[in-house]
Amino acid sequence: MKIEKITENKKQFLDLLLLADEQEDMIDKYLPDGDLFALYDDDLKSVCVVVQINSETCELKNIATYPKYQGNGYGRALVNFIIDFYKNDYKKMLVGTGEVPAILSFYESCGFEKSYRVENFFTDNYDHMIFEGDIQLVDMIYLKKQL
Fold it and tell me: Do 58 and 68 contact (CB within 8 A), yes or no?
């Protein structure tokens, strides 16, 4: 398994990024200035994007694994890598997600804890309703981890 920081042609990973954030113009808001990491295990399995919020905080804006590789630990490996990568640069990492028990439980198992909620984030910022399985996403739930 190999994880690389991608500095050029980040849009080549758009198909994978769209799995986690399904509206391209929302991705365009953070991808240019964000740090993109790609995880390879023979071929590409997962990507994530991290952005600086301020001098003490960064945010995991997008993390996605191709569906056929989900459940094999690639997402967790990527989260563990970026936590280690940024621990000397920031004090805290945030991640925002929909109110989906399985996703919240994944982040909590990676050491994140619930922090705050942004009401109506998905309904106010996307041009269509967003669903994760049969759950409509309305509020953004932010989790934090001390680095």
Answer: no
